[in-house]
Amino acid sequence: MKGKPVTPPVVLSATYQFENTDELIDVVQHRTGYLYSRWDNPTVREAEQMLASMEGYSNVVGFGSGMAAVTSSILAFVEKGGRVIAIQTYGETYRFIHDYLPRMGVDTIGLNCDDVDQCDAEFKKGATLLFLESPMNPLLRVIDVKPLAQLAHEHGAVVILDSTFASPVNQRPIELGVDIAIHSATKYLGGHHDITAGFACCNEEHHEAIWKQRRMFGGILDPMTAFL
Questions:
Q1: Where do the coiled-coil regions begin and end (predicted)?
Q2: Is 162 annotated in the active site?
Q3: What is the CATH number of the domain that holds 72?
Q4: List 26, 34, 36, 38, catalytic entry
Q5: Calpha distance 122→92 (Å, rounded)
Q6: Is residue 184 assigned to a domain?
Q7: What is 177-189 written as a DSSP string?
Q8: Residue 187 designated active-site
Q9: Domain containing 164: what range?
Q10: Is 1 inside a domain boundary?
Q11: Is 20 part of a structural domain of the chain?
Q12: Could you tell me if residue 23 is inside a domain?
């Protein structure tokens, strides 16, 4: 087809056909195309690339809700015996971290402040992941993310920031040392109260782990919502 659509087309197909087995194998092994819309979808990919360009990360993974993005991103980097430090989180995120993760054998601690010295003391006890939210939903408290991200990295922890209430307009997580920036697109990214969606923005080193969680649990964003 000559000419490129000005508006991204909505691709509703659940499955995709191939000219031969070699094409199929290439897509399965190298993700050079599309096989099954639980894995990837062209319309979803378009939305992911648009957000990546706004945030400055190389990759974005689209989900059916903000909480799907949160839970899949956390599960991608914690396992039995791990330890998660969480600072001022949204209610459902709090419940997932402190009620659900301990059932997996993950130790969790919640802090209500951004005191670097207090966080340092906790990191010295061991930590796999630091989860932050700024501005906080719904109290809008803002914390100084950069020194906490630096501290977490010194202890080998992955840093996830829920940046929903700031949006890419008001906050650049990648410039603060954040590994994974979460957005509930149901809020400002959607803007019209007519979608439920979430995104995890990251660079290449963290992308595959998050994408595999989405593929396994089936939380991919649907094409029509991605279009909106």
A1: none
A2: yes
A3: 3.40.640.10
A4: 38
A5: 23
A6: yes
A7: T-SEEEEETTTTT
A8: yes
A9: 42-227
A10: no
A11: no
A12: no
